[in-house]
Amino acid sequence: MINLNDHKLELDYPCNWKYKLIIRQEIDIKIIMNETLGKREHNVSKANTSSKGKFTSHQVALLVHNEDDRKELHRIFHSHKDVKMIV
Q1: pLDDT for 31-47, tens place per residue?
Q2: How far is residue 62's CA from residue 14's CA, in Å, rounded to a whole number?
Q3: pLDDT of the residue at 61
Q4: How many Å apart are CA 43 and CA 41, to the nearest integer?
Q5: pTM of whole model > 0.85?
Q6: Residue 36 has what pLDDT?
Q7: Is residue 29's pLDDT more than 80?
Q8: CB-based contact 57:20 (threshold 8 Å)
Q9: Is 53 left (phi over 0), alpha (psi -120 to 50) or beta?
Q10: Which candidate, 83, 73, 72, 69, places its Cα nearest to that of 32?
Q11: What's the rounded Cα separation, in Å, for the pair 66 and 51?
Q12: Nearest to 57 by CA among 37, 32, 40
């Protein structure tokens, strides 16, 4: 098995990056985006709904400026009370 933590991504920054957020179905993704990104430009599209309808996934696409920015956004999304998982 490959340990991805041992490998560094080779990206040319700035670049477009996508995060997939999984949230409870009743939560409004717009509120999460406002609380995490503020006025930062981004695009959100609904991806899937779980088989029992409890969760939805949303793809968030935005420009990241460098590796620190990309990792910080992941941390911010991960720490939001309504985000259950980032894929």
Answers
A1: 999 999 999 999 999 99
A2: 10
A3: 98
A4: 7
A5: yes
A6: 98
A7: yes
A8: yes
A9: left
A10: 83
A11: 36
A12: 32
Identity of the amino acid at 4:
L
Place of tokens 């696409």: 61
Q: What is the 3-state secondary structure (H, E, C) of the chain?
A: CCCHHHCCCCCCCCEEEEEEEEEECCCCHHHHHHHHHCCCCCEEEEEEECCCCCEEEEEEEEEECCHHHHHHHHHHHHHCCCEEEEC
CA distances from 78 to 10, 58, 71 (A): 23, 14, 10
Is residue 7's pLDDT more than 60? yes
pLDDT, residue 70, reads 97
